[in-house]
Amino acid sequence: MAPVMSGNSKPGQHAACPAAVGRIDSGVIMGHNGCSTDAHAMRASWFLVADVYRADTSMPDMRIAFFGTPRFALPSLQALLECGQRPVAVVTQPDRRVGRGRHVQISPVKEAALRAGLPVLQPDKVRSADFFEQLRAHAPDLAVVAAYGQIFPRALLDVPRLGFINVHSSLLPAYRGAAPINWAIINGETTTGVTIMQVEPAMDSGPIVLQQAESILPEDTAATLHDRLAQLGGRLLVQALGLAGRPEWQPLAQQHELATYAPMLRKSDGLIEWSLPAACIYNRLRGMTPWPGCFTLLAGRILKIHRACVRNACTRPAAPGTVLRTGEHGIEVAAGSGALMILELQLEGKKRMNAGDFLKGTGVQTGAVLGADRNS
User: Fold this and answer.
1) pLDDT by residue (tens digit) across 165-180?
2) What is 4-258's CATH topology?
3) Does CATH place domain 267-361 in 3.10.25.10?
């Protein structure tokens, strides 16, 4: 049986935004150069079904090693426990020292594993021979990965007899990489999803076992979409495990020529370009929430924008970044087309507040220009 994409929605048309990564519009995969390729070709051998695909979830008894680190991985770990597949080992990134006090912070996955009484491994590098031997000692049949944070070498992938499978938060081959949730929102997608795939040494390139689509809502941020996809990943993982070792387990190779990428975010990615359409700035704000956040400059000081909405028509023509009007309900700023109404914001060194309270203490005047260089 071929891999399954489930869900009713398809990628939809959205305002054209200059994209840092590829995006899907109306069934067409858009590449870095803006050229298009028929996306339906990549789905030709997948079944599109209206209802969530449900495999026979009676599973063979398997020894599973679980690899994961952040919160995204928790529903997948919990799903294994709830379906009776208690991991023989949980592998997570080493503890980190954080903050001014340099206190030790453990990963969310380690915390959950310890609560469940599971053995925890924390190698500095998964490429080390010592770790290979540690993993072999647990004799896993299969390894499950959910946002672990490192690329795995072939020697490690060969340790479990059934290899590795990964829970990835996009509909591959679209949005391979570290930040698929963020870039899908930034690029104005209306649909994304989760892919269960076999792991190869190359990034997110392995054959697809199962996929399921998830709508991106107009008000979604990276935080809200993250939580829904994490839960979906846990459910889809259980379905995939129901196929393991059966004749129905027939992963489908990705069409690599259609791959697009979602690179790791940097703080500088949050800088607002007011020359872009207001809808694109709004999508960037949603995709950068909660981290790294979007910001501009006000009189040379960093001004973080926490919440905003789009006004399709400006109050009056003005250069991008110009404050058009202010009031208790928001600060309207001209964009390349349309305007952004800022609802919540935070000036450098100050607390977050709504626009009305901000204006009481900060003299932002109509006609001021946001985004001027700090040194100008």
Assistant:
1) 999 999 999 999 999 9
2) Rossmann fold (3.40.50)
3) yes
